[in-house]
Design goal:
The chain has 115 residues and is α+β, with helices and mostly antiparallel strands. 30% of the residues lie in helices and 31% in strands.
Length: 115
């Protein structure tokens, strides 16, 4: 296999796991410090609803989840306390190369096997 073919195959599989983890931690840091992830360059865009949801995660405990079968995806689990209950949310970062092109935020309870 040529070097070019190997590089193309690597690019088609998305960024390396270490790159996804590093960017996920940058995203977490922006949220924890109440900084706009778009302004810090971590993500390209957020809706107003997503920005409001992320502000609510500032005091939550985050954890980056492994996604070995989804090379273009990184998931962050947020454990939050609401009215003496633990509530879990997930933020999925979708990558194109080493850039986050979109995010999705949803309750962990909506997807089996998370949390």
């Amino acid at each position: 296999m040529s070097v070019l073919a190997i590089l193309f195959a690597m690019a088609a599989n998305g960024p390396s796991e270490s790159v996804r983890i590093r960017i996920s931690h940058q995203f977490i840091a922006a949220v924890a410090k109440d900084r706009d992830p778009v302004a810090t360059g971590v993500v390209q865009a957020l809706t107003a609803e997503q920005a409001a949801q992320l502000k609510a995660f500032k005091s939550c405990k985050p954890a980056v989840l492994s996604q070995p079968r989804a090379p273009n995806l990184s998931s962050i689990l947020w454990r939050c306390r609401e009215d003496r209950k633990e509530v879990m949310w997930v933020t999925e970062l979708l990558f194109d190369g080493s850039k986050v092109v979109s995010i999705e935020i949803f309750p962990a309870s909506s997807r089996p096997g998370i949390g």
